[in-house]
Design goal:
Elements (H helix, E strand, L loop, with lengths): L7 H10 L1 H4 L6 E3 L1 H10 L6 E3 L6 H4 L4 E5 L16 H16 L6 E2 L5 H6 L7 H9 L6 E5 L4 E4 L6 H7 L2 H19 L5 E5 L14 H15 L3 E6 L7 H4 L4 E4 L2 H11 L5 E5 L5 E4 L16 H16 L1
Parallel strand pairs: 1-3, 2-3, 4-11, 6-9, 7-8, 7-9
Antiparallel strand pairs: 5-6, 5-10, 10-11
Amino acid sequence: MGEPAGIGGELTLKAFKRRKDLGLSPFFVIDDPQRLAQLAQKLDLSVSFAAIDDPHDSLSLFETALPVFPFPLAAPVIPGTPNPRNAPAVLKSIEIAVELVQRGQAAAVVTNPIHKQVLNEAGFKHPGHTEYLADLAGIKTPPVMMLACDELRVVPVTIHVSLADAAKLLTTDGIVERARITAQALVRYFGIEKPRLAVAGLNPHAGEGGQMGREDMEIVAPAVEALKAEGINAFGPLPADTMFHQEARATYDAAICMYHDQALIPIKTLAFDKGVNVTLGLPFIRTSPDHGTAFNLAGTGTAKETSLVAAMKMAAQMATNQ
């Protein structure tokens, strides 16, 4: 479902409308069917809906109607204006999706964007989707966020913290753990037999031999050596300013980056409308479009569905490879 007042519903409807041209695998949506029908009418999107209580029914219905696993909202939806009364339904839709995929009734979970502020106002205690999914899955090892497109895959070791805190929080064990999970996922879900991991340095020029900080010598380099000792093809630390041009990208399957912007700037530059957020380390497949709720676009019909479509296609391919 995602945040009902955001663009998630519109993107889902547009993706379904183009399902044949795009070659999308059958999917169903956990949402309020009345909300979706009203939105389709508002946007002049001719979409038929079919309520289901068994996900398997979506296979036969998908040709002619969007299968909807019904979950009603508590309050009417005003595009661009989130309502905390609907927050429990947003969270419950994620919970239902996880239950269905863990029972084998769906191959993957694709989540539309949520709005953390309104969820927090309703008592949500997690930093975001990823942590909530990990809690639902009952895993203690923090999941790994990978951003992916056709040209690049990146994994930030530290994520939503200040740059100053990122440097303080960076550890050799943390780099090794996230790189290990990434390598395992590349084999399992992406069909890469021997993944190549390029590990970025933290400092300019990867520290310039300690002249620009010792973190790369004392934290990052030992992580690379530990990964090599495990048989993982990792190399670095590399200067981040020369890692992301076309020739460099051809030498690795994923880049392990030290902080948020080091990872997200290159991928959003290459594929702003087509990037996919993939959560690694969960016991199920989860992808999401790499953008937010875009309240300023909600209800206008102008939001692009390309990132959601890419997330759906990647989820389907990961399931096939698995």
